[in-house]
Amino acid sequence: MAKTSPRLYLIPVLSKALDIFELLQSQNQSMTLDAIHRRTRISKTTVYRVLKTFMHRGYVSQGQDGFAAEVSAWAATLLGKVSEYAVTSGFSGTDAALERPRCTGAIC
Fold this sequence. Notes:
By secondary structure, the chain is mostly helical. It has one domain: Orthogonal Bundle (Arc Repressor Mutant, subunit A). It is built from four helices and two strands. A two-stranded antiparallel ribbon has the order 1-2. Strand 1 and strand 2 form a beta hairpin. Helix 1 crosses helix 3.
């Protein structure tokens, strides 16, 4: 009997967007659209639309030299919580799911 791999239920465009954001976060300088495209091998159209979405949401800024990640306090907190969860639960990227926190106040 052939062994089948578990279905991951990934969202491809979200994976691409996170690849772009993680690349920008890892750099100590701004990156041009073309440089992001070359490094990620994601189409320029997708890179452009993802960057525009990130700019609209305040995750990325655009200057004369290119695009740079803007890690807000909320994003830093979220990234820290996800990392903490992954470490404490033994999350390997395929064997657990993150649960949405329950609302405890007026804002969820």
